[in-house]
């Protein structure tokens, strides 16, 4: 078998029958290094065609033109790469629960393979498809090095509890990817996607404009190569300095699946960049997989209710504490707070679709301190993160917001107003770590 069976999970009890195989691409939008696509290709074998479909949902929550623009550029590349291997690509618009079963009937498909995704919305799509299909629906975890369902059967408390579980299995799963074989069986002929017409007809929120990050698998691989060569050696030391530009800047590519985290892990593991390598693998594998673990096992991952009980209790006890400032979502969104440092972080995100990881923590914690309630703070932070970050709408975003506002994967600290025992951060702390004035100068105004 090409794909480790532990990556594969059946989502319904219907049989896999002889016929074409449909790969419903969703989280892993790439041709290379894609375990789901490889599994689908293997199931199709020599006798049956493999067809790849992407179901475009124009009202994906929180997404704007910025995100669709990036995603569609990457998908156009996927279509071209698949065509070179004789594999048809079909883009359909609408509700996956309707679109996928209809396509299965049209093709007479004998089985469907899709990407593992722990988000509630995606699990809902998969449930609807699983119920409607007369044939097998299989999920493949191509996003995690160690498949999320293998790491742990329950929600883990913190990085320290998931880390040994991942490290134990890491070597078994960190393998090189096989190449995707060209298609031998005659495939149903498909007209190529008219990307221009699709973009012109896209009815999405255009108020958030595209950014100039180049999308697609080639660009993602180049970004990885540049990071490993130029910055991995200083990553451990400089990653927390928002002025240093030492981070990987791969998160948007990971979010849209334009590169496999496993490809980045293979590159880092082979780099021989000691400390940088270890620090990067911790973020890339342990922290990323901790986010998938949380979303998979906590159905409240997108609300404050997903926070640990101790944090909900302490936040509630400090609900009535006077706030030093209190802003509406619109004031936060427009970067109209009293703090030039906070406004600079908001501006960086609005303009570039990216905010440095260290600033994300400070940014979210101040939203808690300056909102009228923890619930409102959570809703504001998540909405702004999803609207502006290119990598928003991701398990990492949900976990990042809950970590900052509500102690997820953290422990209680010294009690303070508003925060209770949730870890506090202030501008003075930032100034100790990096040149905040330089950051303000760059992103202020
Ligand atoms: N996945 C899809 O299968 N179809 C879509 O139309 C789609 C739109 C979309 C827009 C913005 C965005 O950030 C993600 C989007 N995704 C879409 C999902 C994405 O691929 C990820 O699977 C999840 O957001 C993270 O797990």
Automatic annotation (TrEMBL):
Keyword field: DNA damage, DNA repair, DNA-binding, FAD, Flavoprotein, Lyase
The reaction(s) this protein catalyses: cyclobutadipyrimidine (in DNA) = 2 pyrimidine residues (in DNA)
One Gene Ontology molecular-function label: deoxyribodipyrimidine photo-lyase activity
GO biological process terms on file: photoreactive repair
Superkingdom of source: Bacteria
EC number assigned by the record: 4.1.99.3
InterPro entries documented for this protein: Crypto/Photolyase_FAD-like_sf (IPR036134), Crypto/Photolyase_N_sf (IPR036155), DNA_photolyase_2 (IPR008148), DNA_photolyase_2_CS (IPR032673), DNA_photolyase_N (IPR006050), Photolyase_Class-2 (IPR052219), Rossmann-like_a/b/a_fold (IPR014729)
Cofactor(s) listed: (6R)-5,10-methylene-5,6,7,8-tetrahydrofolate; FAD
Ranges where the Photolyase/cryptochrome alpha/beta domain occurs: 19-148
Pfam families: DNA_photolyase
Coiled coil: none
NCBIfam families reported for this sequence: phr2
Similarity remark: Belongs to the DNA photolyase class-2 family.
UniProt-recorded name of the protein: Deoxyribodipyrimidine photo-lyase
Gene name linked to the record: phrB
């Amino acid at each position: 078998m090409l794909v480790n069976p532990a990556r594969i999970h059946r989502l319904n009890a219907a049989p896999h029958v002889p016929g074409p195989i449909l790969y419903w691409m969703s989280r892993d939008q790439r041709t290379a290094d894609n375990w789901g696509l490889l599994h689908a290709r293997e199931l199709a074998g020599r006798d049956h065609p493999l067809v790849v479909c992407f179901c475009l949902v124009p009202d994906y929550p929180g997404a704007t033109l910025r995100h669709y623009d990036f995603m569609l550029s990457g998908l156009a590349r996927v279509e071209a790469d698949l065509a070179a291997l004789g594999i048809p690509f079909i883009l359909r618009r609408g509700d996956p629960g309707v679109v996928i079963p209809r396509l299965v009937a049209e093709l007479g498909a004998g089985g469907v393979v899709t990407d593992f995704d722990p988000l509630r919305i995606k699990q809902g799509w998969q449930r609807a498809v699983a119920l409607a299909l007369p044939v097998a629906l299989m999920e493949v975890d191509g996003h995690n090095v160690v498949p999320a369902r293998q790491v742990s059967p329950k929600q883990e408390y913190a990085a320290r509890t998931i880390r040994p579980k991942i490290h134990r299995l890491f070597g078994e799963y960190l393998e090189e990817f096989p190449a995707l074989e060209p298609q031998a069986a005659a495939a149903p002929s498909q007209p190529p996607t008219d990307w221009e017409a699709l973009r012109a007809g896209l009815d999405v929120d255009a108020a958030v404009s595209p950014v100039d990050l180049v999308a697609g698998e080639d660009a993602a691989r180049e970004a990885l190569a540049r990071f490993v060569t130029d910055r991995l050696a200083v990553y451990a030391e400089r990653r927390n300095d928002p002025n240093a530009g030492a981070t990987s800047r791969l998160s948007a590519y990971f979010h849209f699946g334009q590169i496999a985290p496993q490809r980045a892990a293979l590159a880092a593991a082979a780099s021989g960049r000691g400390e940088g390598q270890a620090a990067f693998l911790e973020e890339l594998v342990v922290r990323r997989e901790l986010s998938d673990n949380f979303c998979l096992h906590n159905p409240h991952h997108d609300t404050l209710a997903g926070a640990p009980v101790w944090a909900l209790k302490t936040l509630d006890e400090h609900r009535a504490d006077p706030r030093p400032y209190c802003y509406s979502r619109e004031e936060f969104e427009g970067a109209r707070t009293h703090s030039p440092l906070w406004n600079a972080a908001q501006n960086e995100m609005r303009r570039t679709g990216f905010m440095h990881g260290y600033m994300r923590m400070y940014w979210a914690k101040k939203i808690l301190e300056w909102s009228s309630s923890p619930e409102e703070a959570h809703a504001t932070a998540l909405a702004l993160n999803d609207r502006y970050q290119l990598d928003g709408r991701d398990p990492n975003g949900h976990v990042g917001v809950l970590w900052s506002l509500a102690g997820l994967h953290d422990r209680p600290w010294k009690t303070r107003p508003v925060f209770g025992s949730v870890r506090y951060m202030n501008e003075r702390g930032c100034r100790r770590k990096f040149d905040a004035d330089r950051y303000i100068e760059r992103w202020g105004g």
